Structure prediction request, 374 residues.
Amino acid sequence: MKPSSQTTFLNGAKAFGPCTRTLRPQFYIQRNLHTSPPNPATVAPITASGPPPTAPVPSADHVDSRVSRRRKQAELLKRGQDLRNVASGKGGGTAKMKRFWKEVHVKHSDEGLQIHLDKRPVRRPTKEVLVVPHHKPHLASAIALEWDLLVSAQQALMHHLIPLTSLVSRALDIADEDAAGGGPIRENIVKTVMRYLDTDSLLCWAPEAEADPPGYEVHVERTESLRSIQKRTAQPIISFLTQRVWPGIEIVPVLDSNSIFPRSQPQMTKDVIRGWVSGLPAFELAGLERGVLAGKGLLGAVRLLVEWSTELAHLRDDTAEKKFDVEEAAKAASLEVDWQTGMWGEVEDTHDVDKEDVRRQLGSVILLVSGEKP
Prediction:
């Protein structure tokens, strides 16, 4: 860089004239003038050659090893959470991490069937003993199996690990409320399940597929359109309900082919169905709520309820060759999802988990409402 040019300026005109007095220090003002041009940046040349690296490929581990690894990770996370709870004083500790019972058995009493952990009966959140009716021994055995599979007392606080216990507690709460003269539980359940009538999945049919262009309806394994499958699945259920359960009412599809807004059912249909749901016994009402929330529809849940309930045995046809079971109800509830996964494939740990969860919840409905004939 070149040296900067400097120009010195004296302060005032006195610097050039004669001075007869003592000279005072002069003030200098400096101004730096840069004249060197900036150097441009030098871009380094590209030295890489060849194609880009390949994408990482997941290891082809066996399914069992992957599941065991995830279980081990979940156990470590759970143990760490327990230790943090103990350190912060929020609970946990050896009292909750241990299982304080050795055996689980069903005990007969005058009120019904009770599930005992050694000598302690299983209780509801209201501190009352959980009692199953005498004619439901399979339900009592299933609840006992739930508690026998628990490995710690802390797991008893997780509702997803004791689903049947929670479901029976819900039914007993409804029964206690009815015995006391009524309450908000039954009204809230009726209001909730009636909302699914206008958007029932069995009544939402896809539009007719256009012949040209074929679109997504054409597939190497597609021999029937989605609308045809929906109608073939829904019509037997609707016919059964309008002939045996709610005779004389009309149930219409809620979604036309040229509209995206569902239409409401006739008012008489709503009134009849609401009155029928309001008069269900406690266990049947709790089972209907579970079935509606699991299958996202009211009609399929009612069909499953009537098929297996001991209180509604007079409404079904016992001479039928095939019963409406969990598999039929699950297929009717997840018809559109099965159609999509049949074309595009399933997402691991998503579609397969949802499929089994729907069947688990619908199976709990059958256990809740079925039983031996008195």
Notes: Confidence is low (pLDDT under 50) at residues 1-20. Strands lie at 5-6, 32-33, 104-108, 113-117, 120-121, 131-132.
